[in-house]
Design goal:
Blueprint: E1 23-27, H1 28-31, E2 39-42, E3 50-56, H2 62-65, E4 71-75, H3 76-82, E5 97-101, E6 107-110, H4 114-127
Parallel strand pairs: 1-3
Antiparallel strand pairs: 1-4, 2-3, 2-5, 5-6
């Protein structure tokens, strides 16, 4: 966390919601500007303490995302305090992705990569012939 940014919480204000899950990366739109998490995905961890979780609002532009100053590393618990609605999703495996669906009351729904899904189906069809 950068000392130049005014984060929405101090460490002393955090509740123990998601302990011992490791670190993650999150957009300043969540940690500074107080937007809710709109999109989260879990990739292969980059280090021993990295959970692999990445948190975005869904409003970040390509220009915003390409500026590393707009992101910081946090304990997953910190982000859970920003948006406790992510709690039921945090035990999902690497490769998981979720986004809010406005047509379903803004709840999180799993995002399935259509390219990977179609490749899996193509491989299954080849194996069945």
């Amino acid at each position: 966390m950068s000392i130049d940014k005014k984060y929405r919480f101090t460490n002393a204000q955090l509740k123990p919601l998601a302990l011992d899950l490791g670190n993650c990366y999150a957009s300043d739109m969540i940690t500074v500007e107080a937007f809710k998490v709109g999109f989260l995905y879990r990739q292969k961890p980059e280090s021993e303490n990295d959970s692999g979780w990445r948190f975005l609002t869904g409003f970040e532009t390509d220009h915003y995302i390409n500026n590393p100053d707009n992101f910081a590393q946090f304990d997953v618990n910190w982000i859970a305090n920003c948006d406790p609605e992510i709690l039921p999703l945090l035990n999902n495996p690497v490769g998981s992705a979720f986004g809010r669906d406005p047509s379903k009351g803004n709840i999180f729904v799993e995002i399935i990569d259509e390219i990977d899904d179609s490749n899996t189906k193509n491989n299954e069809n080849k194996n069945n012939t």
